[in-house]
Amino acid sequence: MPAANPKVGFVSLGCPKALVDSERILTQLRVEGYDLVQDYDDADVVVVNTCGFIDSAVAESLDAIGEAMAENGKVIVTGCLGKRSELIRGQYPDVLSISGPQDYDSVMSAVHTALPPRHDPFVDLVPRRAREDDVGIKLTPRHYAYLKISEGCNHRCSFCIIPSMRGDLVSRPVDDVLREAEKLVERGGVRELLVISQDTSAYGVDVKYAEREWRGRAYQTRMKALCEGLAELGVWTRLHYVYPYPHVDDIIPLMAEGKLLPYLDIPFQHASPRVLKLMKRPGAVDKVRERIARWRGICPELTIRSTFIVGFPGETEAEFEELLDFLQEVRLDRVGAFAYSPVDGASANRLPDPVPEAVKQERLARFMDVQAAISEEKLGAKVGSVQRCIVDLVDGDLAIARSMADAPEIDGVVQVQNGREAGLKPGDFASVTIMGSDEHDLFGEV
Q1: DSSP letters for 352-366
Q2: Which residues pair with 7 in a beta bridge?
Q3: How many CB atoms lie within 10 A of CB 3?
Q4: How far is CA 345 from the centre of its chain?
Q5: How much is the pLDDT for 114?
Q6: What is the pLDDT confidence band of residue 120, given thresholds at 50, 70 and 90?
Q7: What pLDDT is attached to residue 134?
Q8: What is the pTM for the complete model shown?
Q9: Coil, strand, or helix at residue 416?
Q10: Phi-psi bin for 136: left (phi > 0), alpha (psi -120 to 50), beta?
Q11: Is 83 in contact with 53 (CB distance < 8 Å)?
Q12: What is the arithmetic mean of pLDDT over 340-349?
């Protein structure tokens, strides 16, 4: 009777960029003959891919490591929190290995040490790497996938420690990205690509926008050229983490022409020039207003989502009111907000005049009230329209779908009331007549 394959459990935490790291590790584990299991009791070893961006993420990661240690005892830690190995060792000295983000070789080496792959004399002389045409393991539903185009970031925002964890910007060659996207679409059945990085607008600056060839045509390693290439695949392409640099203007016509989803995820963070300066963020708020107006003039269907920080150290009531005025004026479609919390290692921790916690929470509530009213009004204006939607799941009689304005897990949904009756399945596209709305979601029928 052949020996059973060694079994690995896996816990993946954090942002979509970390999720892509997890997919790569899981794919290599499978290639090397490891079985992936869901329960601690079934696993011979457990890998925990951690997040360490904010204090709550650190706490969640430490809790996950602790749970894996208690339930299994053989734990390999990787990911962003791995950059703070002394913190992990201080609480869990017996973890088998600790490595940082994107350190795939260290993870695999630790797995090999703890759990050698099963010997097979017929294949052991063949290099065990994922095949060039292999889509690999995906942690998203089959019909959408994250496409990571770079690692790291050249910015030094005062509230952020990502560069200390993931390093400076390193762009993937554009032909590598396009080939991966091609495999996902043509072999994996993906119908929506979500482009992610730490700073999508800066793509290629580190390699001086080097030119590469794909499908017989030269493409620069640059955001616009990448988008033009992705448009050739005929699927939804959605851009995340875009800084509002002037060259973002160049991709808006692609959206107007239907080659790219009319959707931009831009983390504006604030609207007070002084607070933005303290954050070490671009502070030309008037230019941002002008640019948004120009974008909407070219592509009226454009959806803009953003995130903001309220209660940043030194933020005055007047500056917070500036932020509310900005919201009322530009009327963004999708908005998330966070009350500032210190992140260990961030330079913002040393800024004077911290905002009291009670004031931060009160401002956050006021901010969300303003945005909820804007969102409700904007979604209400879609009642009576027909929206092109992609189905994520079918739940009873409902199909839970998303319009072009909705990214998975962070934006709203479209509840299709007759989804089962219409025979919809995950990954299907449907034209949905919108019959109702609330602050977050739309309701309609095929």
Answers
A1: SSPPPHHHHHHHHHH
A2: 35
A3: 8
A4: 23
A5: 92
A6: low
A7: 63
A8: 0.88
A9: strand
A10: left
A11: no
A12: 87
Mean pLDDT of 395-413: 94
- Helix (H) or strand (E) segment spanning residue 60: helix 55-71
CA torsion, ordered 120, 125, 130, 136, to nearest 10 deg? -10
Of the candidates 424, 265, 437, 178, the residue with the CA atom closest to the CA atom of residue 446: 424
Helices marked H in 189-316:
223-231, 252-256, 273-279, 285-298
Instruction: Answer whether residue 3 shows pLDDT above 90.
Output: no
Residue 444, H or E segment:
strand 442-445
- How distant is the alpha carbon of residue 197 from its chain centre? 8
The C-alpha atoms of residue 268 and residue 64 are separated, in whole angstroms, by: 31
Q: In degrees, to the nearest 5, what angle opens at C-alpha 109 toward C-alphas 108 and 112?
A: 85
DSSP 178: H
Q: What is the DSSP string of 107-133?
A: HHHHHHHHSPPPP-TTTTTS-----TT
pLDDT in tens, 168-214: 999 999 999 999 999 999 999 999 999 999 999 999 999 999 999 99
* Residue 429, burial from CB neighbour count under 10 angstroms (0-12, 13-18, 19+): middle
Contacts of 435 (CB under 8 A, 6+ apart): 383, 417, 443, 444, 445
DSSP bridge pairs for 49: 12, 78
